Amino acid sequence: MRIAFFSQRVPYPPNRGDKITTYNEVAFLARRHEVEIFCMGDGPEDLEYAEALRAKVGRVHVEPTSPLAGRLRILCSLLNGKPFTLEYFGSTRLKRAFAARHAEQRFDVALVYSSSMAQFVEDTGDLGRVMQFADLDSLKWAQYARHSRGPLRWLYAREARRLLEYERHIARSSAHSLVCTHQELGDLNRLIPGAPASCVANGVDLEYFQPQPDVPKLRGNLVFTGVMDYRPNVDAVRWFARDILPRIQETVPAASFTICGARPSREVLALASLKGVEVTGRVEDVRPYLARAQAGVVPLRMARGIQNKLLEAMAMGLACVITPETAAGLEPAAVPAIRIGRTAAELAAAAVELLQDPEQAARLGSEARRKVAELYRWDTQLAKLERILEAARR
User: Global pTM?
Assistant: First the structure.
């Protein structure tokens, strides 16, 4: 097949949620098919990654995003009624580049990752399209609205409504829609009844993320990984550092919290002044930080879909303490391999239990590794994706 692949960031390297998924999809499909990528470039670094990706798959069309221009287009969306997600990622040049390539050599099918990129194939009626929502972004904006006040609450609620209208349009005009959890599939079937849809879960690289028993544990250490200018991650680590970690330290004075991830916001950097909190910023490899920790924590209060950070920690054999919002994306069979707390007190108690009982933490970590190996292998999930693309081609 000739596949046109659309993503809102360069799908390389696999170092954050959406890039982990898109890179693995591109790498899998490129083994047997011709894949051409059309994407936005998230800053100068992303443009450099495009060059590395070209060496792997060939043609990559990337259009740089401008945060300033994007914000101006968001203001325009308040007047024209469009979702500001579409305005922010809009690009006449990328749309023309795709149209020219499709006219030149005709693609068999388009795989579109995220609703923001669907605008580039809307006018191509002769092309089979698979819409990969991963999760419904309209529900994410609704979550943001519930956790905001004042004008932001109104703005986010407006985006949730407008984007849902657009998601309904693109789901019903696509050959198939994809989400990454059964919870999301239930939401899609409820909100967009009648649209053909399936669940293709994320995976984890089980060879890269392996237990490292020879690495000494840092006593009392808890770790969180992720891109640290992403609002749900910022909210999670601030809550943990300010409200949960002090409760843990009352019982385990040596308890520490490592926040490991690129682009830490000012709010995140400020947490380094708190007792026991380390903010690493960008690191070349998160595995040493996962390996040395006694437990992982994923205390998200705003979450959609499955969390790659959780799968990676579980694959490393790390016992994890998470919220119900984080757990909602897991296969039910994986839930016994983690500890769940709803409140600050419940999360602190679960963490203290693991820190005080290393043998229990080790058993739980081993079970976590076994569950992700059973449920989240990339090849198993992506074989489903390949079959869906074959059925959608025209």
Answer: 0.87
Q: What CATH number should be reported for the domain holding residue 284? A: 3.40.50.2000
**194, HSE (Cβ side, Cα atoms, 13 Å):** 5
The answer to whether the Cα torsion of 173, 187, 228, 379 is positive or negative is negative
Q: Give the Cα separation of 302 and 39 in Å (integer).
A: 26
The three-state secondary structure class of 111 is: strand
Domain span holding position 244: 221-375
Whether the CB-CB separation of 307 and 329 falls below 8 Å is answered with yes
**CA distance between the termini of the chain:** 10
Residue 250 sits in the same domain as residue 332: yes
pLDDT tens by residue, 336-375: 999 999 999 999 999 999 999 999 999 999 999 999 999 9
Measured distance CA(202)–CA(20) in Å, rounded: 9
pLDDT, one tens digit per residue, over 185-244 is 999 999 999 999 999 999 999 999 999 999 999 999 999 999 999 999 999 999 999 999
> Measuring CA to CA, which residue among 169, 18, 182 is closest to residue 82?
169
Per-residue burial over 335-362, b if 16 or more Cβ lie within 10 Å, else e, is eebbbbbeebeebbbbbbbbbeeeeebb
Token pair 């399209």 is at which residue? 129
Query: What dihedral angle (degrees, nearest 10) is formed by the CA atoms of 300, 190, 16, 312?
Result: 70
Helices (H), the chain: 17-29, 44-57, 67-80, 84-88, 92-105, 137-146, 150-173, 182-191, 231-239, 245-251, 266-270, 287-292, 308-315, 324-327, 344-356, 358-375, 378-392
